[in-house]
Amino acid sequence: MYSQKDVLSIGAQAPLAPAQLQQQTQSHELQRTLTWKDAFWVTSGVPAGVLFTIGGVSATIGNPAWVIWILAILVGFAQCFVYAEISGLYPHKSGGASVYGALGWVRYSKFVAPVSVWCNWVAWSPMLALGTSLAAGYMLSALFPPDSVINTWQLTLVDLGVVSKGLTLRVNSTFILATAFLLITFKLQHSGASAAATTQRILGIASLTPLVLIALVPMFTGDMPSTSFLPLLPLTHDAAGAPVLGGWNAAGISTAMGAMFLACWSTFGFETAVCYTREFKDPQKDTFKAIFWSGVLCLFMFIAVPIAFQGSLGLSGMLEPAIVDGSGVGAAMARFVGGGAVVFNVIVVMLVLAILLIVMTSMMGSSRTLYQASLDGWLPRYLSHVNEHGSPTRAMWTDLVFNLFLLLMSNYMAVLSISNVCYMIFVFLNLQSGWIHRMDRPDWARPYKCKNWLLALGAFFGFFDLAFVGAGANFQGEHTLRNGLIAALLIVPVFVYRHYIQDKGRFPESMRRDMELPNARAGVLPYVALIVGGLVVWIAARLTVIT
User: Fold this and answer.
1) CA distance 210 to 4
2) CA-based Rg of the chain, rounded to a whole angstrom?
3) Which fold has domain 33-142+155-543?
4) How far apart are CA 455 and CA 27, in angstroms?
5) At what angle do helices 525-543 and 452-472 cross, to 10 degrees?
6) What is the rounded CA–CA span in Å between residue 121 and residue 483?
7) What are the structural domain ranges in the chain?
8) pLDDT tens across 228-274, in order?
9) Residues 6+ apart with CB under 8 A from 525
10) pLDDT tens for each residue of 28-73
11) How far is CA 280 from CA 193, 269, 338, 536, in A?
C-alpha cells in the first residue's frame, strides 16, 4: 500500500498567496482549471504507448522481452519522484519537467538548458504522427485485405536514403486517414485544457478497457505456456540472418540494451503529468498526486499487457513481420479476447481510441512545452500566444505542421528511434537537475521533497539511460545514434536567433527572476556530469555488438 511517508518528506511550504493562485484569468494566459484527476486522465493515454514498441522490443530481444518491460517501467517509476520535486519549485510554469530542469542548468550553460526543453519536445511531438499513423493502419487492416489497392497504392515524393536506408517521403492511404485523425485531435484541443481533459476522461475509460481485457483474459484462461517465456536467452542471428537463440555474451547484453532503449520510450512517458502544473487549481498538492497515480497505472499496464501479449503469441508469433512493424499488433491483441468478428472489430476500434488518447496527451503536453519555452526565452516569441480558452494555439499549429511532414515519412520506426535519442538526453539532463536544484536552491520551499536516496537513484539512472542510447540506438537502424544527436543540436541556431537576435542577449524579466541565485553552489559538478554522460554514450557505443 502506498505511503507518502515511505517515499517523500513533505517540505514546509506556506500555501501560495491567493493573488498568485487565483490571478484574474485573461485570454492571454493559461487558466487554473485542472485537478490532479484531470491530469491523470490526460496521461491515461500513456499505456497505449505499449502498442507502438511491443513488437519491436519482442523482435529485438525475444523471450526476455517481458523482463525488459518490467525493468523499464520500474526505472521510469523511480525517476518520477525527481520530476515531482523539481516541478514543485515552479508552480507558476507550464511545459513539464524539461522546463523545470532547464532552470537548473541555465546558470551553468545557456546552451545546455534549451537542449533539455528541445529534446523533450522532439520526443513528444512525433507521437502525433506515430499515433495517428498506427491508428490509421489498424483501421485499414481491419476494413480491407492487405493486398487491396487502398492498402498498397503509394506516391513517392522524395528519397531520404541519406538519412536512413529505405526512407522516403510518400503519400498513401495511411497518410490521408492519419491526417484526418490529427485534425480531429487538434479541434478537440482548441477549447482549452479543461474541456480537453473531459474528452480525455471519456476516451480514457473507453480505451483502457481493451488493454485491461487483453492483460487479464489470457491470465484467467491460462493460455500462457511457460515456453512463451523461457528460456531467458536473447535473440541473435546466424550467418544467413535468421533469428536464433543466443547467450548472455557481449552480443546478448547489447541486444538487451537495444530492447531497453525501445521500451523506455514507452514506459517513461507518464512524466507528462507535470506539464499541467501551471493549470492546476492547487499545484502544491496536485503535482505529486498526478505523476504518482499516473505512474501506478503505468506500472500495472506496462507489466501486465506485455506478459499477456508474449504469453499468448510465443516467440514465433512475436517474430511475425506484422507484429515487428506494429501493424498487426491490434489484430493480434483483439484475438486474445475471442468472441467472433463483432467483438474483434469492437476491440480494434477501442484500440484505435486508445491510440488517439495518447495522441491527445502528446499534443497537450508538447504544445505547452513550446509555449513555456517561448515565454522563457528559449524558442521564438510567436509560440507564446494563447487563445481565449487558454490553449497555446500557435504552439499547437506548429505541432500540427511538423507532424504532417512526419506523416509523409515511410519508416515510422526511424522517426521513433531518432526522437528517443533526444528523449533520453532530456531524461538525463532533468534527473541531474534534481541534485543541481537541491544544491543551488536548498532553502526554496518544496511542496514535495523526495528522499536523498531517491534523488541519488534518479541521478544514477540518468547515466544508465544514456548507456541504453549508446548501446541500443543503432539496433533500430544504421546511424540512428548519429541522427538523434544531430536532431538534439538543431535547437542551437533556433536559440541563438531568439536569445541574441530577438532578445539582444537578455532573458525575459520573468525568466531572470526564476534564474536568480546568490551563488551557484554546484560548482564544476554539472560539467563533470556532462563529461561523464558523454563518455557513457561513447563507451557503450564502442562496446556494443550488433549481429
Assistant:
1) 31
2) 22
3) Amino acid/polyamine transporter I (1.20.1740)
4) 38
5) 40
6) 16
7) 33-142+155-543
8) 888 899 988 777 777 888 889 998 999 999 999 999 988 998 877 77
9) 436, 439
10) 455 666 777 777 877 777 887 788 888 889 888 989 999 999 999 9
11) 10, 20, 42, 38
